[in-house]
Every structure is written in C-alpha cells, then in structure tokens.
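Troubleshooting log. The previous structure file for this entry was overwritten by mistake, so regenerating from the original sequence record. Sequence copied from the archived sheet and checked twice against the printout by T.R.
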Amino acid sequence: MSLFVKFNLILALVFSAALVPAGSISYGLLRRNARTQVVEDARTMLETALAARSYTVKQIKPLLAPRLADEFLPQSVPAYSATEIFGYLRETHPEYTYKEATLNPTNPRDRTVEWEADIVNAFRADEKLKEIIGERQGPLGRSLYLAHPIQITDAGCLSCHTSPEKAPPSMLKVYGPAGGFGWKENEIIGAQIVSVPTAVPVRMADSAFRTFLASLVGVFILMLVFLNVLLHGVVIRPLKRLSRMADQVSTGDLEAPEVPVKGKDEVAILAGSFNRMRISLVKALKMLGEE
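Regenerated output below.
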C-alpha cells in the first residue's frame, strides 16, 4: 500500500470519527434553532393579530357603529379582523393556524376545545403569565403552539358583550343571546393560539443539516486535495529521488547525482544523510580499488 493511500485512509478515518459526534451535536443545535425560529415567527404573527384587534376597536368599529343597529358587520369585531388578516398570512405560511379560543364566545367557531380551555384557564389563574409555549398530539400529528391571553382592556369592547339588552340587535339576529355576554373589564376571556406541526422545524433542521454536511464534506475534499499536493511536493517527490539514488548506487552507479537538500525538516535531514552516505560509500570504494 502506497504512502498516498495510507495517508488518505488515515485522514478519511479521522474525518469519519470526528463527523459522527460533530454531526450529532450540530443536528441537535439546528433542531433547537429551527424550533426557536418557528416560535419567533408565530410570536410575530400573534403580535400582528393583536395589532389588528386594536386597530379594529379603535378605528373601524367607531366608523361602523351607526350601521350596527340595522346590519351586523363582522368587520367591526376584533376577533374577525384578526382571523381574516391571519388568513392572508396563511397564503405564504399555510402550515400555521390561528384561533381566538374563547370560553364564552359570541361566534361558536371561537369556542375552546378541551386543551384550549386548559390554556385559557392557566392565563386566568395567573394574570402575570403572558405566554405559553407547548406541544400537543392532535389528530393530524404532533404540533407546536404559542398562546397569548385575550384580556378585555378596552371598555369599548364591552358595548357588545355585557348583556343581550345592550348588544346591537343586528348581532343578536346572527348569533342569538346565548353566548358572548357577561364579560368584564380586565377579564381574560380567551387566548390567541398559533399552532404549527412539529414537522415544520424538523424539516427546517433537516434541510440545514444536509447543507451543513454537504459543506463539511466539500471542505474536507478540498483540504484533502491540498494536503495531497503538499504531501507529494514535500514528502513523496524527495523520497522518490532518494529511492532512485539508492537504487543507482546499489547497482554500482557512483555518478548518481546528489539529492538537493532544502529546508531543515525530517525529509531534508534524511536527504542530507543519504548524500553523506553516498559520498562515504564512493570514497570507501575508491580506497578499496586503490589497494
């Protein structure tokens, strides 16, 4: 087996041995980073939905208030506006879902299911709790969710939710008097919940990991080529010259040229030793010939 082959095999073994722990650690980091990125995206979406709610309460609802007695306009409802805006966001982020989960909603589609009610009750039990991040197993697989509390901080929201008598008649015609009443100022009545399949951050991490591995292997190949070139110029070529000189001298060719010595490394020292041995051998043979 040539020195080239041995050298490359050793480097390949070292690279493979280092790649396993490095790959394991890197994949774990990439998974955590991808999960963090997904949570940050969900948090931005929740803030966007919250801004839409505030905009609806402060600017849209006052404009539409005169018409609510005769015609119910869902655009005046903060939850509707937030949900509609999120629907547009889903055109570019279809994997994310949004719900304004409410314990006592006006619109039945906003009513909490069991696990959503647990989140809302957790916010109600601790008003200092402003965010919940968790995972759950659903019918379509495991999902990651981010939740923020929905709290009545604007008294204007209560105009439709204190009692059926004070609510716009047009709203009662659509939803009836059964739900969405009895709310109080500063009460936490629900939660904004953004959900995304856990497969999304896993897919992001897998893609980044493949790119990382491809880059690492590419760098290794470039380094291997560079080291092979250095090995040939610094070690293999001088050793071949020494081998040729030794062969020539061993066959009686005492006129074999010396191997040039450059530097002070081990190969240069070996070349110098061979040159001195050749000179000594030539002198010894001449002395034997003269005798």
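The CA atoms of residues 72 and 171 lie 5 Å apart. Archived copy saved in two places this time.
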